[in-house]
Write a structure and sequence with these properties.
The chain is α+β, with helices and mostly antiparallel strands and 241 residues long. 28% of the residues lie in helices and 24% in strands.
Length: 241
């Protein structure tokens, strides 16, 4: 039975095995070990690889096939969600409380026994944020953080990591704003990693890993938006449909 590749923390941080060697079961498991240094994380994302593991596990690196991707121009906003956005229930911001968003994403959820956002993961992505590679979107209501998401930007690809809602639809509204702004900035795709009904309802589709890797290679070296991110004042979050 094939086994994932073992990484040593002293290895060249840019070196990962070819993603074609990732396991079929569990889908996408490619490598084990290494570290979460900014250089290794950036190298991983540039190759369509991301870390995901529980606190009682070593670092696990994944590149699933197929890959869930949302192209900004294909964003779908339901009639009910459009109504909520027009009501302006939430104030949406960029990069105002990255640590608060990560902390909220790490909170236990009713359908999960544990969180994958360990203190190690938290510190690693905060470091990426301070370097300008990771970004948060916040949804505020009465000056309280009630929803949001965070992810990593490489070139003109945005890799979504996690989202949360303390009020119904708060994270969806944040995601719609993010997608509309990324489209204006000419970002090509939002990587959603693994498909779900929730993501598909917003317009995400599954594409072969090879197609995603090709897309990534064409857009990872393009100039991205300087950090910190801010929404354009005249941005319209609702696509014309």
């Amino acid at each position: 039975m094939p086994a994932p590749y073992w990484l040593d923390s002293h290895d060249d941080v840019t070196q990962f095995p070819p993603v074609e060697l990732a396991l079929n079961e569990p889908n996408g498991l490619l490598a084990v070990g290494g570290d979460l240094s900014p250089a290794r994380l950036i190298a991983a994302y540039r190759q369509s690889i991301f870390p995901w593991y529980s606190e009682d596990q070593p670092i696990l690196w994944w590149s699933p096939n197929p890959r869930a991707v949302l192209f900004p121009e294909a964003l779908h906003v339901s009639r009910s969600l459009r109504k909520i956005i027009r009501q302006k229930r939430f104030n949406i911001t960029f990069d105002q409380d990255f640590e608060g968003v990560m902390t909220a994403c790490a909170e236990p959820r009713s359908y999960e026994q544990e969180t994958w956002i360990s203190p190690e993961i938290f510190e690693a992505y905060v470091a990426l944020h301070r370097l300008g590679h990771a970004h948060s979107v916040e949804a505020w209501q009465d000056d309280k953080l009630v929803g949001g998401l965070y992810g990593v930007a490489i070139g003109r690809i945005f890799f979504g990591e996690s989202m949360f809602s303390r009020e119904p639809n708060a994270s969806k509204v944040a995601f719609v704003h993010l997608t509309s702004q990324l489209q204006r900035w000419h970002y090509r795709a939002i990587d959603c990693q693994v498909s779900s009904k929730h993501l598909h309802s917003l317009g995400a589709i599954d594409i072969p890993r090879a197609d995603f890797l090709s897309l990534l290679k064409h857009h990872r070296d393009l100039p991205g938006r300087p950090s910190p991110w801010r929404f354009d004042q005249d941005i319209n979050p609702l696509p014309t449909q």
